[in-house]
Amino acid sequence: MAKLYFHFSTMNAGKSTILLQAAHNYRERGMVPYLLTARLDGRAGHGRIASRIGIGAEADTFDETDDLFLRLADRLAQGPMACVFIDEAQFLTPKQVWQLARAVDDLRVPIMCYGLRVDFRGELFPGSATLLALADEMREVRTICHCGKKATMVVRMDADGAALRDGAQVQIGGNETYVALCRRHWREAMGDHPAQTD
């Protein structure tokens, strides 16, 4: 049975690595996966999903204007498509997430989305919020804060290493820009220091 999956985490948790490994597993068994990534994120090159550990694969791209149900229906008409893998799923629009849900239900193709849950301000991305509402299954990809606790937040740093509190929700960057932290250390970085207790 086809399902809509949302694999979410902070930056640098290995989401792209897991996606690429899963797509490889399909190919190894003679099945055809279809890979999509956000057009606006060109860090790995246009139309490419890459991991920090050095593996990568070519992918088609999407932006906010694409009707993803029609894209997937057209792709399915061209030949077998065992599973759809979407990287940078936080950049989907809410409407596109509904289109993906429709593709799962009507085209009966499993769709695995990988992306961030929250931005550097601790706010849900619109696409991620809709995936949290509609996904049949959700899985957290875990990473750790410098203190050893699970990292659930991300802080955006300026050129001097200071945490930014304001700015556009979307700014493409990697380790030079973002640091994954637990909620307590994210609060400290954002200037909300723990209360003193006796």
How does the SSE layout of this entry go?
Layout: E1 4-9, H1 15-28, E2 33-38, E3 48-50, E4 56-58, E5 60-62, H2 68-77, E6 83-87, H3 94-107, E7 111-116, H4 126-134, E8 137-140, E9 153-156, E10 178-181, H5 183-189
Parallel strand pairs: 1-7, 1-8, 2-5, 2-6, 6-7
Antiparallel strand pairs: 3-4, 9-10
Helix pairs in contact: 2-3, 3-4
Describe the structure.
By secondary structure, the chain is an alpha/beta fold. The protein has a domain at 4-141: P-loop containing nucleotide triphosphate hydrolases (Rossmann fold, 3-Layer(aba) Sandwich), CATH 3.40.50. It has 5 helices and 10 strands. Strands 5-2-6-7-1-8 form a 6-stranded parallel β-sheet, sandwiched between helices. It has a two-stranded antiparallel sheet with strand order 3-4. Helix 2 runs parallel beside helix 3 (94-107) and helix 3 (94-107) runs parallel beside helix 4 (126-134). It catalyses: thymidine + ATP = dTMP + ADP + H(+). Substrate binds at residues 170-173, 178.
